[in-house]
Amino acid sequence: MKKILVINPVADSRWNKTDGDYLKKIAREGMVVEVVNIKKGPKTIESFYDGAFAIPGILKIVREIKNQYDGIMINCFADPGLKSAREVCDIPVVGPGESAIILASMLGFNFSIISVKKNVIPMFEMKAASLGLSKRLSSVEYIDMPVSELEDNFNKTEKAIIEAINKTIKQNNTEVAVLGCTGMLSLHSGLVKRVSIPVVEPAATALKALEILIDLRISHSKTGLYMTPDVGKIIGY
Amino acid sequence: MKKILVINPVADSRWNKTDGDYLKKIAREGMVVEVVNIKKGPKTIESFYDGAFAIPGILKIVREIKNQYDGIMINCFADPGLKSAREVCDIPVVGPGESAIILASMLGFNFSIISVKKNVIPMFEMKAASLGLSKRLSSVEYIDMPVSELEDNFNKTEKAIIEAINKTIKQNNTEVAVLGCTGMLSLHSGLVKRVSIPVVEPAATALKALEILIDLRISHSKTGLYMTPDVGKIIGY
Amino acid sequence: MKKILVINPVADSRWNKTDGDYLKKIAREGMVVEVVNIKKGPKTIESFYDGAFAIPGILKIVREIKNQYDGIMINCFADPGLKSAREVCDIPVVGPGESAIILASMLGFNFSIISVKKNVIPMFEMKAASLGLSKRLSSVEYIDMPVSELEDNFNKTEKAIIEAINKTIKQNNTEVAVLGCTGMLSLHSGLVKRVSIPVVEPAATALKALEILIDLRISHSKTGLYMTPDVGKIIGY
Amino acid sequence: MKKILVINPVADSRWNKTDGDYLKKIAREGMVVEVVNIKKGPKTIESFYDGAFAIPGILKIVREIKNQYDGIMINCFADPGLKSAREVCDIPVVGPGESAIILASMLGFNFSIISVKKNVIPMFEMKAASLGLSKRLSSVEYIDMPVSELEDNFNKTEKAIIEAINKTIKQNNTEVAVLGCTGMLSLHSGLVKRVSIPVVEPAATALKALEILIDLRISHSKTGLYMTPDVGKIIGY
Amino acid sequence: MKKILVINPVADSRWNKTDGDYLKKIAREGMVVEVVNIKKGPKTIESFYDGAFAIPGILKIVREIKNQYDGIMINCFADPGLKSAREVCDIPVVGPGESAIILASMLGFNFSIISVKKNVIPMFEMKAASLGLSKRLSSVEYIDMPVSELEDNFNKTEKAIIEAINKTIKQNNTEVAVLGCTGMLSLHSGLVKRVSIPVVEPAATALKALEILIDLRISHSKTGLYMTPDVGKIIGY
Amino acid sequence: MKKILVINPVADSRWNKTDGDYLKKIAREGMVVEVVNIKKGPKTIESFYDGAFAIPGILKIVREIKNQYDGIMINCFADPGLKSAREVCDIPVVGPGESAIILASMLGFNFSIISVKKNVIPMFEMKAASLGLSKRLSSVEYIDMPVSELEDNFNKTEKAIIEAINKTIKQNNTEVAVLGCTGMLSLHSGLVKRVSIPVVEPAATALKALEILIDLRISHSKTGLYMTPDVGKIIGY
Fold first, then answer.
1. Beta-carbon contacts below 8 Å between D and E
2. What is the DSSP letter of E184?
3. Which helix (H) or strand (E) holds F179?
4. In chain F, what are the domain boundaries?
5. CATH level 2 (architecture), domain F97-202
C-alpha cells in the first residue's frame, strides 16, 4: 500500500472531491490518493503572481506531511513550487506541466499546449524551453476563458478547445495536444473522441509519473539542484 | 489484464529468462510480461552496425504480434527500431534509452550515462541532443568492457561502474547516473546502495513508461512522424 | 527628481543602511534611493525554498507603493519575484541577477558567476540558460560559505572569491567575473584591484539598469508575459 | 583513375541506368562511377520502416566491395545506413541528404526542403536539427505524391515542386530550395530555369562531396562515432 | 565631467547636428556628448558591403581619440566595427543594435525589429542569434524604404513603421518593438503614442548603456575576445 | 576551362607563389588557379582589427574582376569579407574557415581547431556557433605563435601543432583536427602522418568547395542575405 498526496494549490476546496474521484480511478491498484488544498493563497492560478501566493502554502503542507506519504503531486499545470518542494523533501514530487510536456514529446514530433488566457503563450513557451523542448512545441493556443469559467458551460469550453486543436493541426501540422490546465480534466474523455490526434491530460499523467517514481523507488537527487535548504531561516510564516 | 511484449533485439535467447524474471517483478499487478528475442541479427548491440541488423527482426515481430499485445518494449538502451516500430503499429512502443534519459531529466539538473565502449560517447551525446537534453547530460562515461563480458565478473563490472559514477560526480557535479546498457540491469540493486546519487535502470524505466501509456490509453500520434507506411513494398524479407 | 525603491527581500533590516549608502553613491544625481526590507520571509536567500517565502512580501510592497516610485529594484541575485512584480506594476522592475549577467555578456566572450554554496551551480546555469546565455557562461564557481558568513571575515571571503576567479580564468579562459550574490557588494572595490579581469557587481548594475529604464521612460510590455493579473483572487494574505 | 560506387538502396534496378548516366555526366574527369542496387529491401524509401529494410543490403555491399572502390555514395535523401556504413569501412561514404543540406547552408540564410509525402516534415526537421541547422531550415514542403509516381507525369511533378518553392519563398522569404528526394534528379535542370532561387539537387551534390573527400585523401575519423565494430556477431544474414 | 564620442559611421556630416541635439537631451547631467562622422566610407549603411567600408574610418577615429574620451558609441544599428573597436581601446564602446536588442529582451517575452530593406531579415536574425536571443526575436519587419528616404516624408515613414508593428503584434503576439535603424530616431517620440507596445529607440539606448559602463567604471575584458592586437601591421591606411 | 581567383587578404605578396603552387596541385584538371594579394591592408590577419583593414581591398578586387573568373576564394581562415563579397558578385565565393569547419563536421562527431594566438578561442567558438556547430566543436587550441613566425622553424611549429592535437584527443576525445590558419598549409602533409585522427587543411578544402559550386553551376542566393547592395554610395575609396 502506497500513499500519494495531491495538493490543489488553491485556497478553495471545491475541486478536491472531483479531482480525487478522477485520480482515484486512474491510480493503480494499491495506490491511495488523497487530495487537499492550501488554506491561504489564490483561488485559481493564472499568473506568476497567483503562483507566488500559492507556494508558501504548498511548502507548508509538504513539510508537515512528507513522512506520511510516498509521493506528492502539485495539481496545477504551472507546477508552482515544484523546485522548492523537491528541496524540502526526499520523496518524489511531480507536477502536471512537466509530466505532460515530457510525455507529449514521446508521442510525436511536435505538440501544442491548449490553455486559458493570452499570457499563457510566453509562460508555457518558457516552460517548454526550460525542459529543452522548444523545437517540439508547435504552438501555445489559448481559448480566452478564465479558469473559473471553464466549468460554467461544458459544451462551450469543449468547443473552444476543439477549435484550438484543429487550428494548430492545420497551421502547424501539430501531432499531439496537451491540455494546459488541470481544470480541463473533466473534459478529456469527451475530447479524445472528437479530435484526430492524441490529447494528453496533465493531472492523470502526473499521477502516473509519480507512480513510476514510487514503484521504481527512485526520487530526485539531493546533491545539487534540489539540495536540502536550511529551513530554519524563515520568519513570520 | 494487459499484455506487454518485450523484444530482446539480439539473436540470442540467453537473456530472455532473466530479463523476464526481472521485469515481471517490476510490472504492476495485472500486467503480463513476455520476452522474446529476434531470430536473425547481432548477438549484442554495440554499434550502429549491430543496430542495423537488429531492426528488421524487430519489425517482423512487431508486425506479426501487434494485435495480440497492449504495448511493446524494445529492450536495448540504443532503442533500435523505435521510430519504425511506431510507424507500423498503433499500440505504444517504448525504448529504455529514451525512457531512462527523460526520467533522469526529472530527477536533477544533470545526469551522466555510464556505458560500455568508447564509441558510446558520441552515440549517446547525439541521443541526448535529439531529445533536447544536451545541456542536461553532464558526461557519457564508458567502462571499456563489451556487453558480452558484463556478467563474467559481477564484482569487476560493478567496481568499474561505481568508479565511473564517482568520477563524473567529482568532475562534473553530476546529480543522477543512468545505466547506459540494459545488460547492466542485474547490477542495479547493488549499485544503488554504493553511490551517493540516484541510479536509473533503463529496462525497468521503459517498462514503467509503457505501463503509463497503456493505463492512460494513449499512444503515439499517427498523423506525422509515425504515420503508417505502405508495408507492402519490401522485397526479400 | 526620480525615486527608486530598493527592496531587500529578506526579513532582516540589517543591510538596509549599508546597501542604501552604497547604492546612493552609485546613483546618478537627482535619483533618490530608498531601501526597505520585507517583514516576513527568509533571513537570507540561498534556495528556491527561501525565494518562495520572500516573494509574497515583495509583492505586498510592490502593490502598496507602486504609485509612489519611478522604479523598483529587488535586491538579490536570485531575482525572486521579478516576473510577478512586473505583472502587478507598470513601473520598471529590475533584478541584480538578470542585469549583471546581461552586462557581463557585453564585456567579453564568456563570464563566470562566483557565488556561495554548491546548489548555485545548477541554479545559475538555469538562469543563464533562460536568458539565452548558456554558451557564454564559462562556469559557476562557489566559495562554500553561506550568505550569513560573508561579512564575518572580509579577508577570508575576499581570498576565496579571488581564488575562484583565478581558477576559472585558468581552467576556462574566463574573461569576466560576476559576483553571484548581492551580499558581496562591499568586497567589490577591493576585488577589482586584485584580479586581471573585469568584475561585475550586480546590485550596482541593477541600479544603473533601472536608471536607464526610468530615463528612457520605457518599461516592460503589459501585453503578454507581464500582463496585469486579477489581484483580487488572493485569500489570507 | 578513381572509382566510386553508388548504391541505390532499393530492391529495384530500374533507376541504375538513368542515375548512372546522370552522375557520370557530373563526375569529374578520371572518376569512374558505377551504380548498383540492393537485392532485398524496399522498392522506394519513404519511411523509417523502408529505411530499416534497406540498410542490411547496403551494409552487405559496403563490406564486400570496400577494397575495390575509393568512395561510396548511398543514393537516397534519407541517408539510410550512412553511420553504420562509415563504421564498417575506411573509405569515404556520403549521403545526398547530409551533403545537400550542408551545401544549401552555404548559399543563403535559409533553405527549404521540397519532398514527397507529409511525414517528411518531421523527418527532415529532425535531420536538419541533427546537423545543427534547424534555424536555417525555413520549412519542409511536400507535394503529396509518392516516389513511385514522380516520373509518371513530369509536367505535373515539376508544377507541384515549383508551387511548393514559390509558396515557401512567399511565406518564409526562403532563399534556397533543396530537392528532398533523389528521385527528383531528372527534374532539376528544368526547375532551375523556372524559379528565382538556387535549387540544390542532392545526388549531384553528394557525388561532388565524395569527389572532394577522395581528392583531399581524407575520410571519416575511426576513433569515435565511426569506430570499427566487431562485425562477426551477426547471425543469419 | 565625462566625455562621450559618438561616431556616425557614414561619410556624411548631415546627421551630426540633429543626432547631437537628440543625444544631448538624453544624456545625464555632466555627460558631454560630441558627434563626428567618418571621412571616407558609405553614405548610409544598409549591407555588409557598406559596413565594410565604414569600419576603417571608425577605427582610425577610435585610435586617434581614445585617450580623450571616456566612452565611444558607434551610431548605427548594424554595429559596424564594434568588435574591432573594442580590440584597440580600453574605454567602453557600445553599439545601438546590441544595446537595443538586449534591452528589449528585458521588457517582454519577445520583440520584433522594424527596419528598412528586405535584406535586414537575415542580417538581424543573425545578430539576435549571436546574442543568444533567437527565440525571443518574434520577427524582423521591413518597411521597404532606403535609409536615405526615411526623412523625406515623416508621415509616410511613421505610417509604415506603425503598420509593421501592428502586423507583428497581430501575427506573432509581439510584446516589444525595436527600431532597427538609428535613422528612425526622430520618429520615436511620435511612435510611442500610437502603438500599444513599448518601442525601443536604439541610439538613446546605446547612449544610456555607455553611461552605465562609464559610471560603473567597467569596460570590456582585454584577455580574450577583445585582446589588444598588434596595430603596427597595417599598410596603406 | 574554368578560372578561380584566390585572394590573399594581406598586403604582402610573399605567399602568392607558394600558395599558388600548393593550390594548383590540388585543383582538378581544367581548373586555372591564380593568386593575388591586396595592396593595402594588414600583413597578416590575427584579429578583428586586421580583418577590418583587409576587407576593402578584397572587395575592390572582387568588384573589378568578377566577370573574368568563375569563382573566388578568400584565402584566410577568418573568412574576412566573405559575406560582403557574396553581396557584390554572382559567382561563388568561398572561405577556408567556413569550408573546413563544415567538412570536419562530416568526418566525425567532434572536431578541434588548432590556431595561433589565445584570442582565436572566442573568435572560432563564435564562428562555429554561427554555423550551428557549437556542440560539435570540442575545443579551440592555440600554439601561441604569431602567423609571421609559423614558417620560421617548421619543426617547432609542427611539434606545437601535434602537441595541441594530442592534448585535445586526450582531454576531449576529439575525432578530427582542423588547422585554424591557412598559413599552416605547408605543414599539412607532414602532420597527417604523425597524428591518429584526420587533419583538415582549410585552403585545400575551400578550393575543393569552390570547384563543387562551379561544377554544379550553383551560387549563393541573391534574394536575401546576399542581396546586391547599391555600390555607388561609397566615398573616398
1. 12
2. G
3. strand F176-179
4. 2-96+205-233, 97-202
5. 3-Layer(aba) Sandwich (3.40)
Residues ≥6 apart with Cβ < 8 Å to F36: F5, F6, F7, F8, F16, F61
Q: Identify whether the C-beta of residue C100 lies closer than 8 Å to the C-beta of residue C205.
A: yes
For chains F and A, tell me whether 3 or more CB atom pairs sit within 8 A of each other.
no
Q: What is the DSSP letter of C143?
A: -
What is the Cα–Cα distance from E186 to A186, expressed in whole angstroms? 55
The predicted model gives D132-138 an average pLDDT of: 96
Nearest 5°: phi and psi at F92?
Answer: -60, 140
**Rounded distance, CA E112 to CA C157, Å?**
44
Q: Do C186 and C150 meet the contact criterion of CB atoms below 8 Å apart? A: no
Strands (E) in A89-198, as ranges, are 93-94, 111-115, 137-142, 176-179
Across the interface, whether the CB atoms of F102 and D98 are under 8 A apart is answered no
Residue E198 DSSP class: -
Mean pLDDT of the region E25-33 = 96
Q: CA B49 to CA F14: how far, in whole Å?
A: 50
Q: Which residues, in sequence order, are CB contacts of C118 under 8 Å at separation 6+?
A: A224, A227, B173, C142, C144
Query: Does the distance separating the beta carbons of C29 and E28 come in below 8 Å?
Result: yes
Reading the block at residue F3, the C-alpha cell is 578560372
Closest CA to B196 of E83, E176, A224, E151: A224
By the 8 A CB rule, do D107 and D198 touch?
yes
Q: In this predicted model, what pLDDT tens digit does every residue of B135-163 receive, in sequence order?
A: 999 999 999 999 999 999 999 999 999 99
Edge-to-edge strand ranges of the sheet holding F31-37 = F31-37, F2-8, F71-74, F93-94
CB contact (8 A) between residue B109 and residue C126: yes
Match domain F2-96+205-233 to its CATH number in 3.50.4.10, 3.40.50.12500, 3.90.1310.10, 3.20.20.140: 3.40.50.12500
Specify the residue for cell string 517483478: B25
Contact status, residue B168 vs residue B138, Cβ threshold 8 Å: yes
Q: Is residue E192 pLDDT above 90, yes or no?
A: yes
CB contacts of A133 in chain B (<8 Å) are: 132
- Regarding pTM above 0.95, the answer is yes
Cell of A11: 485556497
pLDDT at B230: 94
Q: Are B198 and A220 in contact (CB under 8 A)?
A: yes
Q: Are D8 and D35 in contact (CB under 8 A)?
A: yes
For E145, the grid coordinates are: 524604404
Helix or strand (DSSP H, E) at E102: helix E96-105
Q: Of the CATH numbers 3.40.50.12500, 3.80.30.20, 3.40.50.150, 3.50.50.60, which one belongs to the domain with range D2-95+205-223?
A: 3.40.50.12500
Predicted confidence at residue C134, as pLDDT, reads: 95
Distances (CA, A) of F220 to B103, D58, E2, F213: 44, 34, 47, 9
pLDDT digits (tens, 9 = 90+) for A50-79: 999 999 999 999 999 989 999 999 999 999
Section B96-117 average pLDDT: 98
Specify the residue for cell string 514510487.
A214
Taking the C-alpha atoms of residue C104 and residue C134, their distance in angstroms, rounded to an integer, is 13
Beta bridge mates, D55:
none
Q: Is the Cβ–Cβ distance between E98 and E128 less than 8 Å? A: no
Question: Which positions in chain D touch A108 (Cβ < 8 Å)?
Answer: 122
**What are the φ and ψ backbone dihedral angles of C167, each rounded to 5 degrees?**
-60, -45
Whether the CB-CB separation of D162 and D170 falls below 8 Å is answered with no
d(CA D66, CA D59): 10
Residues of A in contact with B224 (CB under 8 A): 108-110, 173, 175
What is the rounded CA–CA span in Å between residue C176 and residue D183? Answer: 53
Identify which of C232, C46, C36 has the alpha carbon closest to the alpha carbon of residue C143.
Answer: C46
Residue whose C-alpha cell is 537527487: A221
Write the class of the CATH domain B2-95+205-233. alpha beta
The amino acid present at E40, given as its one-letter code, is K
